[in-house]
Amino acid sequence: MTEPSNSVPTAQVLTPASSALEQSQPVTENSPQTLPIRDSKPTKPTGDAPASTDGTTDKPLSPAELKKKAKADKAARRIREKLDKEGGTIGSAIPTPGVGAQARSPTTPKKDAAGAGSAQKGPRPLTPRRGSGPLAQTGSVLVEQKKKKDDKKVAVFGHLYGQQRRVTVAGATKEVHHAILALGMQLMDYTICGSSARCVATLIAFKRVIESYTTPMGTSLARHLTTHLSYQITYLSTCRPLSISQGNAIRALKLFIAGIDPSTPETSAKISLCEYIDSFIREKITVADQVIADSAAQKVQDGDVIVTFAGSSIVKQTLLLAHNQGKRFRVSIIDSRPLFEGKSLARDLAKSGLDVQYSLVHAITHAVKDATKVFLGAHGMTSNGGLYSRVGTALVAMSAKERASGVEIPVIVCCETIKFTDRVALDSIVVNEIADANELLPLNTPVSLVVRDPADAYVPPPPENKKGGNRTPVPEPPVTPHKTSSSPLANWRNTPNLQLLNIMYDVTPAEYVDMVITEMGSLPPSAVPIVHRMVTNL
Amino acid sequence: MASTTSDAAVADTKPFDIVATYNELLRSDADLTMPIAAIEALVLLLTQSASSTISETLDLLEKSTAHLKRSIPNPIGLSAGTDLFQRYLITTLQRPGQLGPAGDFKAIRTHLLSNGRLFIRRAKESRDKIAAFGRGFIRDGSTILTNGGSRAVAALLQKAADEEGGPAVRFRVIYVLSSISQDCKQPNEEPEGMETVRALRAKGVPVSTIPESAVAYSLGKADMVIVGAEGVVENGGIVSRMGTYQIGLLAKAIGKPFYVVAESHKFVRLYPLGQYDLPIEQQVLEFKSEEDLEEERKQQSSVTKTDGDTSIKLPLCDSVDFTPPHLISALITDSGVLTPSAVSEELIKIWF
């Protein structure tokens, strides 16, 4: 498992594949003659399609029994994987499934470094990447300090640490298609970020999986393809937990696959599947976005000052459309660390000629002062009307609603119905996503921004509060022109009593949202469950 | 029925004038609400027109609806009716069977027209239904504050007052009389709602009439507020006679329940974000300095009043405001007593 850091990714794929073969030996009670389904890994729990359980068992089992067996298989496989990893590198302590995930990172420093090395080969956008620098640093961490590791979990969010995100393609089963491997890398380092983008990318990757898929002997496409897709889904969810939109899209796709007549010839079934995916993307995202942008742009009026948080693609589309319609308004973008999604939005809007003000979330009170409307994107909308979105959104919405004097500022959410979920979120603790805490270290900030350039010397000290036009201020006050690695928090894993929390989402309560613009029309947040029911029943 | 009188009125003017018909309908029948008048006008239009295909019918409908909306200064109420009718037409035409796109258009047309009439009759009955639903809200010894000239509220109050022999419910009414609406009426004309006040007094209900400025003062004595609405918008807020919003705010501040009485055909596909987001132009806030006033006086003296483009602007006495849903305790409608958030559910049911 310890490849040299410059090994090609394919080599990394091969190793886990062969290890998967070895692993699969104890679980061969299912149809020994067909190779690809020998490792009877169950579907992800998110899939609820009836055909998701393994259809190739010898004796007929009830769905409940099948599920139980699948669960047991999965647990066994997980423990084996853990054992392999632990045994391969240090050969100590049998970890329980819960601890094992956490214990993985210190034991595999070299592998992490390898993954980071391969990740850096791709085109490097401005987005911060996970696992490159910081994890390599953890290589110095001693194994004995594992006990301390557990203190590094923030207690309230302890349940979210369950599965550590994957950092390399290593360990992927052989069933995982290369398009999915590539997508996984893009998801884990935020190259593809944003609920809609992830959903579209996943569907397109699935299309490639389906195109290169051939039904094995003895099964039908309708029954086997869901299982095959489940491998891909499981892999993707280890790269980054699936978004609500991805989950909904996968559910719809599985339902469609299950509905394919088994007598349909494979080629035509595949063609109809690809057509289904295409029309799904078109209807649920592309056209939906246009409809939403159309009706949201109507809400933009001359003289508005529109506050938006982070970088939502649909908000960008709306603002550009309103601008092209000749409306004169200003945009105030609130951004936050560590992803800085608002930067590209600020650049794109300014390029198109809009008046843009960019500030970080700690300047929210200033930004809200002269705001007239708030436009927000969404990761999802929960059934109790809560807006589940990038962490910081709730702060912006609440600041807008609770402004001490003057009229209330309407908070408008633009959200496709594909992002609606039947789950309920009362707080942002129960359901959330924890990203690598190392992203919070200032390593993400490019050194060139921190080192003061003589030309920039005349920049006034508090750059966030500037109400001026198209200037993109320095995201952080340039304090130390040191090497970034000497950040005070760099060694946080070994600092006792210090915990870092990098949470991804928060929930904005329904009472802070005035309007949800969807492709089905504008709704109050209370109408989310009704529309969700309607959309899923169609 | 009002349609018979207007049928005759329209018959002689060959090119059918939807705006005139609409206004005529509203004038001829005091009990007619704006959405129903709009639907009735559209049904009359279809009776008159000689369209022979579905698309022709829909096209005609769309054009006249747009024309009607443009010509009426406050199209919020009537757009509820036109939207509903259009939606109803389309769903009927999409339905498979004899009346679907494959069927005989003649049959479809007669079916549509007869059903349109049925709809109008049902809508007129809805006020009685509302009164039945809302009766339970009015208890013995309670005091109710209301405003405006809503016929639904009047029906509800009167129903509560006269149940089988003598007032079954003993309640008092505080009637807020609008001062704005008096401005543009004839000096001897009584303010809106006086008719209801008289009717209630005749039934033995003690009524006190107060100006709008006394609402905060009087609310302490009231147990609840019941108001009517011109339109119920998608988020459950209401568009109503100017002054309703402030009563809602005061009721919320003092902690009195605020009920809205509205027929479900007044639900309109509109989502205002605030007072200034309504699709109408109101002449409420007019900032003027002495200079402007002088100029105005000069213009008035030089040019004698010609009713040109003034028609599209809403006169002050007909101005409306928007009461947001968080101020509303419940909506008493003919499909039951709804919370504001249930309005969007009802609307979605109609539209999808």
Automatic annotation (TrEMBL), chain A:
Keywords: Cytoplasm, Initiation factor, Protein biosynthesis
Transmembrane stretches, start-end: none
Pfam families per record: IF-2B
GO cellular component, one term: cytosol
Coiled coil: none
Subunit structure: Component of the translation initiation factor 2B (eIF2B) complex which is a heterodecamer of two sets of five different subunits: alpha, beta, gamma, delta and epsilon. Subunits alpha, beta and delta comprise a regulatory subcomplex and subunits epsilon and gamma comprise a catalytic subcomplex. Within the complex, the hexameric regulatory complex resides at the center, with the two heterodimeric catalytic subcomplexes bound on opposite sides.
Region (Disordered): 1-147, 454-491
InterPro entries, per the entry: IF-2B-related (IPR000649), IF_2B-like_C (IPR042529), NagB/RpiA_transferase-like (IPR037171)
Compartments reported by the entry: Cytoplasm, Cytosol
Name of the molecule in the record: Translation initiation factor eIF2B subunit delta
Biased composition annotated in UniProt, kind: Polar residues: 1-34, 482-491
Gene Ontology molecular-function annotations: translation initiation factor activity
Biased composition (Basic and acidic residues): 72-87
Main location: cytoplasm
Family: Belongs to the eIF-2B alpha/beta/delta subunits family.
TrEMBL record, chain B:
UniProt superkingdom: Eukaryota
Keyword Flavoprotein: no
Record flagged with keyword Protein biosynthesis: yes
Coiled-coil regions listed: none
Matching SUPFAM superfamilies: NagB/RpiA/CoA transferase-like
Matches recorded under InterPro entries: eIF2B_alpha/beta/delta, elF-2B_alpha_N, IF-2B-related, IF_2B-like_C, NagB/RpiA_transferase-like
Molecular functions (GO terms): guanyl-nucleotide exchange factor activity; translation initiation factor activity
Gene Ontology cellular component terms for the protein in this record: cytosol; eukaryotic translation initiation factor 2B complex
Keywords linked to the UniProt accession: Cytoplasm, Initiation factor, Protein biosynthesis
Compartments where found: Cytoplasm, Cytosol
Subunit structure: Component of the translation initiation factor 2B (eIF2B) complex which is a heterodecamer of two sets of five different subunits: alpha, beta, gamma, delta and epsilon. Subunits alpha, beta and delta comprise a regulatory subcomplex and subunits epsilon and gamma comprise a catalytic subcomplex. Within the complex, the hexameric regulatory complex resides at the center, with the two heterodimeric catalytic subcomplexes bound on opposite sides.
Cited PANTHER family: TRANSLATION INITIATION FACTOR EIF-2B SUBUNIT ALPHA
Family affiliation: Belongs to the eIF-2B alpha/beta/delta subunits family.
Name the record gives this protein: Translation initiation factor eIF2B subunit alpha
Name of the gene this protein is made from: tif221
